Amino acid sequence: MSFAQKTIWITGASSGIGEALANAFVQQGAKVILSGRRVEALNRVAAQAPERCLVLPFESTDYPALPEVVERAWAWNGQVDMLINNAGVSQRSLALDTHLDVYRQLIEVDYMAPLALTQWLLPKMVERRSGHLAVVSSVAGKVGTPLRSGYCGAKHAVIGYFDAIRAEVEAAYGIAVSVILPGSVHTSVAINALSADGSARGQSDPNIENGMDVNVAAEQILAGLAERQREIPIAEGIEAMALKLRVANPEQLYSLTAQEGARLAAQREAGGSLDPSNIRSD
């Protein structure tokens, strides 16, 4: 599938995977709608090809604003061929220490926001009998790992929603639905992750720093989207193994994650800082 002249809408397009995807789509001749909160950063991404980029900033959890945002996106070229729900936030805290409001925020940003935007855009795609919906979930959407209880919950939920709407619209209306499962990709995801009290963590993790280059990840995602793959794993090493174990030998996977949880619990009981160096997935 060629993306030339296709209209691609990407949320969370100001940095990380979203920015890399925007750059890759522009290079393939697509017209790209760039959404996020940081207007200056979105303008920077758009500067590579301003004639083929629309900067459409909005707060992903501002649900009353979504009808107007969707109309503006659709009106730009008279259609949206693909929506990539990429905006999100991660977590770095044990459940024992995490405030309830942090869980609410993770659910709103990582689950409710992509659901709400998709719900507003979906009827337009159904009317055209054409379109492609995608969401960036995570390996953590399939594998429960320590320090990410709320994040895992939200990413599991978003997979369930998109799997269900695929069942409703793929054969009936010709709309593709793709779930993207990144593991450790070298971005600022860990720096921006929520701590137990909801503050930004402010530092990265070794696995993220040593993770897949973001442009390589974007290339793999584009290849999967071009083939209209229903599930697109972007994982290497132990993360790829974990996805396979989740299906082939879940008991072994549970034992491995429990060992890591025990190590972190021991650090907590000793009053030391938590070392996430063995943790995998974003």
Architecture overview:
InterPro entries: KR_dom, NAD(P)-bd_dom_sf, Sc_DH/Rdtase_CS, SDR_fam. Belongs to the short-chain dehydrogenases/reductases (SDR) family. With 282 residues, the chain is of the alpha/beta class. It has one domain: Rossmann fold, CATH 3.40.50.720. It has nine helices and seven strands; from the N terminus they run E-H-E-H-E-H-E-H-E-H-E-H-H-E-H-H. The protein has helices at 16-27, 39-46, 66-77, 100-128, 149-173, 206-209, 214-226, 237-248, 250-269, and strands at residues 7-10, 31-34, 53-55, 82-85, 131-136, 175-182, 231-234.
What does this entry show, briefly?
The protein is α/β, with parallel strands linked by helices and 282 residues long.
Please give a handful of descriptors for the protein shown:
282 residues; alpha/beta; Rossmann fold; seven-stranded parallel β-sheet; 7 strands; globular
SSE diagram, text form:
Layout: E1 7-10, H1 16-27, E2 31-34, H2 39-46, E3 53-55, H3 66-77, E4 82-85, H4 100-128, E5 131-136, H5 149-173, E6 175-182, H6 206-209, H7 214-226, E7 231-234, H8 237-248, H9 250-269
Parallel strand pairs: 1-2, 1-4, 2-3, 4-5, 5-6, 6-7
Helix pairs in contact: 1-7, 4-5, 8-9
